[in-house]
Amino acid sequence: MPDWVEPVARYMLDVGLRNTLRTAAISVVLATSIGVVLGTLITIRFWLSRALIRGYIEIWRGLPIIVTLFIVHFGLPALSPKLEFDVFTSGIITLTLWGSAQIAEATRGAVQSIPREQHEASAALGFGWVGRHRYVIFPQALRRLIPPLVGLIVGIILNTTLIQVIGGSELLETAEQSIERLGSPPPVGLLDPHAFEILGAVAVVFFLICFPLTRLAAYLERRLVA
Prior knowledge:
Layout: H1 5-41, H2 47-62, H3 65-79, H4 87-112, H5 116-124, H6 129-158, H7 171-182, H8 195-224
Helix pairs in contact: 1-4, 1-6, 1-7, 2-4, 3-4, 4-6, 5-6, 6-8, 7-8
């Protein structure tokens, strides 16, 4: 084994992968929690709440994630120094905004796909809006929500790589830093030595994380939606 492999692998795993997984985990939890709540509340027949939630969804779904990242990390501090965040907090906020908007729309579709007869039957049993959704509607909607939700979680994980553009030492950034260190000064006639091996390792890591989730989404779609 070449002598460069061990230090590079240790750096990428201890720093890059740890930061990537931490950012992804926090973003997934926040995005799922916010998205499910907003996606359920948008089904309320109150125009103001529906308009506000719809605006939130359309804004953060419609903007490229990198634009949102720049707004959060560079734009907000220009408004107030109190809104200045470190790179990973900015990444988490960005991924949460994008992910919660996507999940809210998926949740809305799942809730509204439940037949109206279910709403009427639960209302006839004396359930209020909260009770109907908690005990009758949402458990059924969850079966239809889980497959797309897993796919959106994969999207959040993959988009953690964007944090590198603002200097975050996530997995891809640590790979690029390792390539630069190994290639300084570059050997004659060789550009970015070991780039293929190092970037290939990044691809393998993301594949090992995301492929089981994509297979899980396909499996759940067959079992739960059928």
